[in-house]
Amino acid sequence: MTNFQTHQREDIAEPSPTFSKIVPPLAPLFAPLFAQCHDTLNWLPSQLQNEQFAQLYRLVLEGNRQQNLTRITEFNDFWEKHLWDSLRGIWALQEQERLQVIDIGTGAGFPGLAIAIAKPSWQVTMIDSTQKKVNFVQQVIEELELSNAIAIAGRAEALAQSVKYHRKFDLAVIRAVGKPDICTKYCLPFLNQKGNAVLYRGQWLTDESEQFSVFCESQNIELGQVDRFQTPLSAGLRHSIYLSPRSTSISNS
């Protein structure tokens, strides 16, 4: 395995009590991490994108002082578990342009914010049932001037049935911390006829996989690629599960 370098946060100043548009000096630290992991993402951020990722990190640290956004705040952990992991889930789709994407249960804005920064041609809608978190994400969107992103407060079940969101998206992403069948049921009503969903998972056990395959078969869902990989810094085991309600999902290869 590649010997990845890590970076300590000892040079990071305390975040200011208000949001700031000043580009932080963290951007140069993100660049080498992405460069070392280029083969895992097949993508490298521009200077502007590195600056946006760095500003996003500062805003999350600041927002975390006001509400419980995330426990992942250490620099290397943030890069690996929020930024890299968010982008690893869409690696099979990154060549596509102008996708309409929905991030279900976005929380502090992941994977949606990272995707919006990395793919400016994609339109990213992030939804969460907690208004405070949505307010934070929308403020980050404005601070980073992400014209391709929006945050909406509401329950997925209700929003999926509204005319504005029902079957309007090419891609649904969700960090599937709950049962995969439930997470899938949240995604499907948002997808258009050619849409795909990506479930972001940690462990993916054999029994769980078998049960999910039975569920997909019963619901006329095509289970495509199950991408098994290790995170580049901590070597944690992760999975991305790609599926579709039609025969248009990403096939196994």
Average predicted confidence as pLDDT: 88
Largest sheet: 7 strands, mixed
Under CATH, the topology can be stated as Rossmann fold
Beta-strand proportion:
15-25%
Rg is: 18 Å
Fraction of helical residues: 25-40%
N-end to C-end Cα span: 23 Å
* Domain module tally: 1
Tell me the series of helices and strands, N- to C-terminal.
Answer: HHHHEHEHEHEHEHEE
CATH architecture: 3-Layer(aba) Sandwich
Count of runs of 4 or more consecutive helical residues: 9
Quaternary form: single chain
CATH 4th-level superfamily? Vaccinia Virus protein VP39
Number of strands: 7
Low-confidence stretches: 1-23, 248-253
- Shape summary: globular
Class inferred from helices and paired strands:
alpha/beta
Strand order, main sheet: write it out. Answer: 3-2-1-4-5-7-6
Pfam family, one: GidB
GO cellular component, one term: cytosol
Function: Specifically methylates the N7 position of a guanine in 16S rRNA.
Keywords: Cytoplasm, Methyltransferase, rRNA processing, S-adenosyl-L-methionine, Transferase
Outline the structure in words.
The chain has 253 residues and is α/β, with parallel strands linked by helices. It has one domain (27-244): Rossmann fold (3-Layer(aba) Sandwich), CATH 3.40.50. The protein is 36% helix and 20% strand. It is built from 9 helices and 7 strands; from the N terminus they run ααααβαβαβαβαβαββ. Strands 3-2-1-4-5-7-6 form a 7-stranded mixed beta sheet, sandwiched between helices. The longest helix has 18 residues, at 47-64. The two termini are 23 Å apart. Mean pLDDT is 88; it is low at 1-23 and 248-253. Pfam families: GidB (PF02527). This is Ribosomal RNA small subunit methyltransferase G. InterPro entries: rRNA_ssu_MeTfrase_G, SAM-dependent_MTases_sf. One of its GO terms (molecular function) is rRNA (guanine-N7-)-methyltransferase activity.
